[in-house]
User: What shape does this take?
Amino acid sequence: MNLINLPTSPILKTLPPGFQRIHGRTLHVAKVPGLDRHGYTIILIHGIAASAATWLPLMRHLMPVARDFLVFDMPGHGLSPDPRPPFSCLDAYDCVQACIQNNLKQDGRHLIIGNSLGGAFALRFALDNPGLVSRCILISPAGAPFPVSAHAVIDRFLPTSLAEANKIIDDVWIRPTLGARLIAPLLLHTASQPGFISLMKSITDMDDNPTSPLRELLFTPEKLATLSCPAALVWGGLDRILPREMRDYFCTYLPQNVDRFFPDDFGHSPQLDTPKRLAQIILKWLDT
Assistant: This one.
């Protein structure tokens, strides 16, 4: 695979429309053909306040190794309607797992990639469905215990002003573009929706509730040790969203055969800032 002049798809500029009812909720689900009929079905899972469309820059570079792509907006994100409360992070994972299971071809190779909360869901899916996942890539995944509090990480995703929404963009992007700045009003709108607020509060509830059901989504050392498929952990040195202690937790407890990549110039979501560089890492890893 040529890692200098990566081919891209000039026609992949938007995701096709398509909606499915999953666990009583409506999800925007897109299936996009790749360029290699013997390649991977690539499942992409976004994080909090993001959307399936944020994967488009990376998808263009992964087309040569993809049989097809499966991307979707979690409930309350992108084009998926806000879910009626109560709606928890466990509910979100159940929707994600069912969406993948319902749309995954049983034959062929399956590569699952997730970022942030999507990384936690990708890892959980790989652990829960080992026979369905050929390879797994975790980009700054959530799911490790919060070193201080869940509020310290989550509260920033509930902005109440454009200034606070722009601060999220400053933290996620290394160098925010004008296009990124235009997302701020959308972030502000998303953060005002009842279902999204319910999702966020289900996470911060762990601070005050030792019996919070969400704790079952946190990865114990014993659970991480059971990961059986080839996997890679990608964590940027400029990540300003998740604390470094969470990265260190995964480094300590993921199996030693999980490959680790820590580019100094990557932020929390390199598929937005440096998709070509991220694709180079992924393609080289898939070649090994």
About this structure: The chain has one domain: 19-287. The mean pLDDT is 94. The first strand starts at residue 19 and ends at 22. Strands lie at 19-22, 25-33, 40-45, 66-72, 109-115, 135-139, 231-234, 259-261.
